[in-house]
Amino acid sequence: MPTVNVNRDLLFEKLGQSYSDEEFDELCFQFGIELDDVTTDSNDPKGAVTYKIDIPANRYDLLCLEGLSRALLVFTKKIQAPVYRAVKPGSLIKTVVKASTKNVRPYVVTAVLRDVTLSQSAYDSLIDLQEKLHHNICRKRSLVAIGVHDLDTLSPPFVYSADPPQEINFLPLNQKKSFRGDELMIHYQSDNHIKHYLHLIKDEPLFPVIRDSKGVVLSLPPIINGNHSRVSMGTKNLYFECTATDLTKATIVLDILITMLSEHCNTKFEAELTEVIYEDQDSPCYFPALKYRKEIVKPELVNSVIGINLTPEQMALSLDRMCLKSRVEQSTEASLEVEVPPTRHDVIHAADIIEDVAIAFGYDNIPKTLPATNTIASQVPLNKLTDQLRNSIAQAGFTEALTFSLCSVEDECEKVRHSRDIKEPQLARVANPKTLEFQAARHSLLSGLLKTLQANKKMPLPLKLFEISDVVLLDSSVDTGSRNERRLCAVFYNKSPGFEIIHGLLDRIMLLLEVPCSEAGGYSIRSAEDPTYFEGRCAVVLYNSKVIGRLGVLHPEVLSNFELSMPCSAIEIAIEDFV
């Protein structure tokens, strides 16, 4: 769920009304969004207050101050939903798409906004909206990459082509010297912002590039724009280009950019139509689309799904508040004709319209009723066993911990003395981890408890911790390629190893589970070797002759890796076989 940061005073100025934090929180709840946090900038002498608002992932029209304030104004009936128009000028700005782009990023959509007035807040909103869209619908620029340019610095028509990287040379945004395309791939490897997008084209023989009629490079999508056409607060005419691997997504992104930012034009909510000409197609394409479409919904369906009793006229008024202009269509029976604007690409089904009726009606106003189906609920057996074991182990003097499900590869390999070559292929890796701490799904609960001991080693001894949670194991026999396994792990940390404490805990658990201590039809332990445990002080736990876990005294090197100075015993077993 994206989080939008908006200046409270600017937001209230656009809303034409001030709210207390509680009142605005209630307004957000009614509208179906959430005020997550209220922060104050300590470095600002005026103490600027920022609202952090959680937005549903499919509401691209709420990802900026303009869209959010406009939607709230319509919701509170202070304004009518605006009408967005794409006007055809006397001379269309053309973009020619070369056939060479087909194997790299084959699509481009364009638009122009004229007579724009950009304040500092509007400029910041433009930049922030691009970033939000890039990380959301654009899927980190893999589907769509956005470029916004100062049209007055360029000479149309434009050409979108794919060229050898050695033939592309330009001054990138915010740089002081020009680079060739291949040099840019090296230069931006150390840039924390740009380096995440290099893989999209760096291994391609041809790089996509947009130039004007004089050969000036506008952008090298999806990496960086050119500095020549950079946008400033003095820019009056904006040229938008979105290159893409998915034309539908590109059209949506362009619609959102135009509908949000056209608020700053002299003629509000009006864009200039542009022409895109594909060399291998007979007919040109025109953008922005800004299409309105009609949907028909039956009032009876709306009432039955939500559990309310509104008239068609009341439903139409409710949808008007959600920027969905509606009217009652009278034929043999009443129906709702709903006009879906270009800002609401999230509306793809009757269910989306029904949801908006429920929001406008108010979730708190929906009558509470018992479900129409009669079912008897029961706890999942594995969860029931887990809860019973948690209570019993806590009664034995152990404190429950809840550790992260993601961990570093180092925690699962080197720190517990396992070979990375052997252990790493067994881990479910995260494709794009944000930090080194969260590289993979945990394969064991032990390292998480040892990190908990490390953070609490100044607490009075002994430290007795346990956790019952899932680990992730790779499994090619299931559709997802991995499966969860519920495990129990406990550690005892004191001046002496306390192996008898851990062994006694195992016996107590088996007693509660009514599992006899027997090699046939029960549980037993058998000496084993494991690099995590001290030589000669490790055993495997068997249940019905199947190995379900290990217990023993941890190796001093493992303790040293987690900055622990006292001996420690541990047990980790799978508990699903006992259900």
UniProtKB/TrEMBL annotation:
Q: Which GO terms describe its cellular component?
A: phenylalanine-tRNA ligase complex
Decide whether keyword Ligase is in the record.
yes
Instruction: Name where it mostly resides.
Output: cytoplasm
Please provide, alphabetically and separated by semicolons, the GO molecular function terms listed in this UniProt record: ATP binding; magnesium ion binding; phenylalanine-tRNA ligase activity; RNA binding
Cell compartment(s), UniProt: Cytoplasm
Domain B5, residue spans: 290-368
A Pfam family (short name) is B3_4
Has the keyword Protein biosynthesis been applied to this entry? yes
**E.C. no:** 6.1.1.20
Subunit structure as annotated in this protein's UniProt entry: Tetramer of two alpha and two beta subunits.
- Family assignment from sequence similarity: Belongs to the phenylalanyl-tRNA synthetase beta subunit family. Type 2 subfamily.
Protein name per Swiss-Prot or TrEMBL: Phenylalanine--tRNA ligase beta subunit
The organism named in the record is Allacma fusca
